[in-house]
């Protein structure tokens, strides 16, 4: 069982720059940070190590999480998967969650954080990838308050909208939100609610922005060095 600690972020203070870069589509919106392997010390085994995985719909979060799990032994906790599981289980919240997902909106944080907390507590691992969370400042604050921890690393998969739409429409996994109307709404919500979270972590030097265009393996080669100091 993982040990709950207030934060181990002091182990990962690797911000080198707070230069505001106004070049390019997304760097226009975020504070630029730089990463390198040597700046990320190895955490003490047993201490909670949380990675938030951010990015727009279809940017490849889940796909890259699977690669990180395989290479570095994280436990993958996908907020979207937990919510879909809750719907499938016939829980009291199920119909509200379903309509929220259909509309591309954000489920109240209390519900999502409770599901994440249960998932983390039922794991013996101490290294977690929290995928698709936090989606809003409300999500972020609720996690900090309930779990009592901050992320050590925040990954942001930066992908052009056109590419995200193409990937989602080709996904073919029967998701109720994989249609053009819901994708448009999800992109709007992403712009409105997720950017403040991305900026928040960027300003704290925790954000690793990864260009998510390319093959799955090419993208993973940009992710790998971030976790290289961690043993499996
Ligand atoms: N680099 C890539 N190039 C092309 N297709 C990709 C790439 N990465 C992932 N995909 C495909 O794009 C689709 C979306 O990927 P994935 O489910 O990992 O995205 P996501 O960020 O988790 O999306 P969501 O937020 O909707 O859950 C999947 O069908 C996946 O196989
Ligand atoms: N923190 C979150 C995460 C997800 N949702 C809802 O689930 C939908 C699908 O999420 P994916 O991560 O699998 O893309 C998302 O569009 C939201 O409706 C949420 O509310 N809060
Ligand atoms: Mg996903």
TrEMBL record:
Location in the cell reads: Cytoplasm; Nucleus
EC number, as in UniProt = 2.7.4.14
Q: Where does a ribonucleoside 5'-phosphate bind?
A: 84, 105-107, 132-135, 175, 186
Any idea which positions bind ATP? 58-63, 171, 214
* Catalysed reaction equations from the record: UMP + ATP = UDP + ADP; CMP + ATP = CDP + ADP; dCMP + ATP = dCDP + ADP
> Listed GO molecular functions?
kinase activity
Residues the record lists as binding CMP = 139
Taking the first listed entry, what is the main subcellular location of this protein, grouped into a coarse class?
cytoplasm
What is said about its interaction partners and assembly?
Monomer.
Designated name of the protein: UMP-CMP kinase
Q: Which organism is it from?
A: Prunus mume (Japanese apricot)
Q: Which gene encodes it?
A: LOC103336249
């Amino acid at each position: 069982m993982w040990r709950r600690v207030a934060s181990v972020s002091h182990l990962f203070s690797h911000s080198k720059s707070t230069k505001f870069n106004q070049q390019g589509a997304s760097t226009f919106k975020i504070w630029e940070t730089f990463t390198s392997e040597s700046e990320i010390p190895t955490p003490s085994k047993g201490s909670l190590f949380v990675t938030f995985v951010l990015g727009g719909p279809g940017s490849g979060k889940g796909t890259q999480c699977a690669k990180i799990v395989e290479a570095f032994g994280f436990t993958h906790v996908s907020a979207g998967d937990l919510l879909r599981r809750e719907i499938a289980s016939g829980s009291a919240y199920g119909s509200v969650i379903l309509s929220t997902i259909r509309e591309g909106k954000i489920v109240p944080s209390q519900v999502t954080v409770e599901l994440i907390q249960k998932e983390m507590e039922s794991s013996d691992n101490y290294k977690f990838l929290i995928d698709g969370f936090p989606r809003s400042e409300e999500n972020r604050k609720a996690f900090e308050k309930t779990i009592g921890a901050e992320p050590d690393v925040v990954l942001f998969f930066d992908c052009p909208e056109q590419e995200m739409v193409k990937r989602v429409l080709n996904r073919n996994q029967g998701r109720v939100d994989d249609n053009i109307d819901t994708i448009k709404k999800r992109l709007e919500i992403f712009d409105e609610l997720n950017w403040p979270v991305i900026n928040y972590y960027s300003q704290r030097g925790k954000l690793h922005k990864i260009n998510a265009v390319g093959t799955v393996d090419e993208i993973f080669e940009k992710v790998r060095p971030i976790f290289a100091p961690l043993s499996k």
